[in-house]
Design brief:
Elements (H helix, E strand, L loop, with lengths): L8 E4 L4 E5 L2 E5 L5 E4 L2 H13 L4 E2 H11 L4 H17 L3 E5 L3 E2 L4
Antiparallel strand pairs: 1-5, 1-6, 2-3, 3-4, 6-7
Helix pairs in contact: 1-2, 2-3
Length: about 110
């Protein structure tokens, strides 16, 4: 994550239906689009987001969750979290708030 991204807060979008099957997660959107999270890192991050509920989760908490679950450096975990959140935001699965810049990252 670049400077300032550690305060990013991610919240799962309302209305998503998600189910864990084995070590994978399937996410169904309102328009019937299905997203398949199949690697252990993505599943661990999704579960951390799910645990955050409507309050969301700080990006740094996701970094800590990855470091706790896998043998990964904080720097690598930050890169993975940034990429994961960016991908989920692009797919309209999460809302991101950057407190320093306001909702959606606007200055």
């Amino acid at each position: 994550m670049t400077e300032g991204d550690s305060t990013t807060r991610a919240t799962l979008r309302p209305g998503l239906i998600h189910r864990a099957v084995g070590g994978e997660v399937f996410v169904l959107m309102a328009d019937s689009t299905v997203h398949w999270l199949k690697n252990a890192t993505a599943v661990a991050l999704w579960r951390a987001l799910e645990a955050g509920g409507g309050d969301g989760v700080d990006a740094e908490a996701l970094v800590t969750a990855l470091c706790d679950a896998f043998e990964v450096t904080p720097e690598r975990a930050r890169e993975d979290v940034r990429a994961f959140l960016s991908d989920l935001a692009d797919k309209a699965l999460v809302d991101l708030e950057h407190p320093a810049r306001g909702p959606g990252g606007a200055d």
